[in-house]
């Protein structure tokens, strides 16, 4: 695999040993108000423009999922795939800011960017029982040779218990890799209720960081992105990074031109394989079909 590469302007580790140990133990870390005000303004402007641009659509596409009531005058998307290709400012932040340096501190010096999306939490209950509102582990959407990967959530506004918060189970990344499939092996995007007794859901916590914060969590952590939203919340940018030597079992056809860029360190010479293995559905195409909202994804 040929890989584009971005050089780091930073040389020293960003995180303290205590922060890194907290992440290893709990599977998540919140860096409050780490984004400088000038950067935050640029990211907010990018989100506003991308949101406004969805007003040109009258139906969902592979890139943009729309909610009921969407219109040009009142855009109402659920998510926008690959905003990094729509905003130079966002891509600069994802590839050439303190964020990828933090990621390198947590998963190793060689880091691959996978994808980003702009996510809108709403109180309309669209994902109450399925999709983003279901308990899941993000690794299931991106089965690969090893499980060194994390999600970064970029908070543009304050999160509260009533809006824009993620529920997760601390330490659950040390537990099983659950099969996000039905009994026929078909991908469902969520952990089956029969597995709930193996998860300490009563220990789940909500992350409510202020504006300018970044939340990071291991993509094996059991979490729920949209549980119990009581009011509409502002959008947040989300991004997935993996260790550079983690190779997917299938090419990711929903990614932007930046997909696969080595944002820190060097391209790998070999893939690294986790001996535990990674559960996969009967057909890997089903994952991308699910992520694209049912639109067909080319092979």
Can you give a write-up of this model?
This protein has 299 residues and is an alpha+beta fold. The protein has a single domain (17-291), classed as q2cbj1_9rhob like domain (Jelly Rolls), CATH 2.60.120.620. Helices cover 18% and strands 17% of the residues. The protein is built from five helices and eleven strands. Strands 1, 2, 3, 4, 5, 8, 10 and 11 form an eight-stranded antiparallel β-sheet that branches. The chain is globular, with a radius of gyration of 18 Å. The two termini are 17 Å apart. The model is unreliable at 125-132 (pLDDT under 50).
User: How many DSSP E strands?
Assistant: 11
Which oligomeric state applies? single chain
Shape: globular
Strand content: 15-25%
- The CATH class, by name, is Mainly Beta
Name the descriptors:
Jelly Rolls, three-stranded antiparallel sheet, 17% strand, eight-stranded antiparallel sheet, alpha+beta
Quick summary of this structure?
The chain has 299 residues and is an alpha+beta fold.
Set down the secondary structure blueprint.
Blueprint lengths: L16 H10 L1 E4 L5 H17 L10 E3 L10 E5 L6 H9 L1 H10 L3 E9 L29 E7 L10 E3 L36 E3 L6 E5 L4 E2 L11 E8 L18 E3 L20 H7 L8
Antiparallel strand pairs: 1-8, 2-3, 3-4, 4-10, 4-11, 5-8, 5-10, 6-7, 6-9
């Amino acid at each position: 695999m040929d890989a584009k590469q971005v050089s780091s302007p930073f040389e020293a580790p960003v995180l303290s040993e205590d922060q890194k140990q907290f992440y290893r133990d709990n599977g998540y870390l919140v860096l409050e108000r780490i984004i400088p005000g000038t950067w935050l303004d640029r990211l907010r402007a990018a989100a506003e423009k991308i949101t406004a641009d969805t007003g040109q659509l009258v139906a969902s596409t592979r890139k943009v999922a729309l909610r009921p009531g969407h219109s040009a005058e009142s855009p109402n998307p659920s998510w926008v795939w690959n905003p990094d290709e729509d905003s130079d400012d966002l891509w600069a932040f994802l590839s050439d800011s303190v964020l990828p340096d933090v990621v390198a501190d947590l998963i190793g010096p060689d880091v691959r960017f996978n994808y980003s999306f702009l996510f809108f939490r709403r109180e309309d209950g669209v994902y109450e029982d399925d999709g983003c509102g279901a308990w899941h582990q993000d690794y299931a959407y991106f089965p690969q040779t090893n499980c060194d990967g994390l999600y970064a959530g970029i908070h543009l506004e304050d999160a509260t218990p009533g809006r824009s918060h993620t529920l997760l189970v601390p330490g659950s990344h040390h537990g099983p890799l659950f099969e996000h499939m039905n009994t026929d092996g078909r991908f469902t995007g969520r952990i089956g209720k029969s597995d709930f007794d193996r998860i300490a859901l009563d220990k789940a916590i909500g992350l409510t960081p202020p504006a300018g914060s970044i939340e990071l969590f291991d993509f094996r952590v059991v979490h729920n992105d949209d549980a119990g939203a009581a009011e509409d919340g502002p959008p947040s940018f989300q991004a997935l990074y993996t260790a550079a030597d983690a190779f997917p079992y299938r090419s990711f056809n929903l990614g932007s031109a930046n997909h696969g860029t080595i944002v820190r360190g060097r391209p790998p010479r070999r893939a690294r394989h986790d001996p535990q293995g990674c559960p996969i559905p009967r057909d890997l195409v089903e994952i991308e079909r699910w992520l694209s909202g049912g639109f067909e994804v080319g092979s």
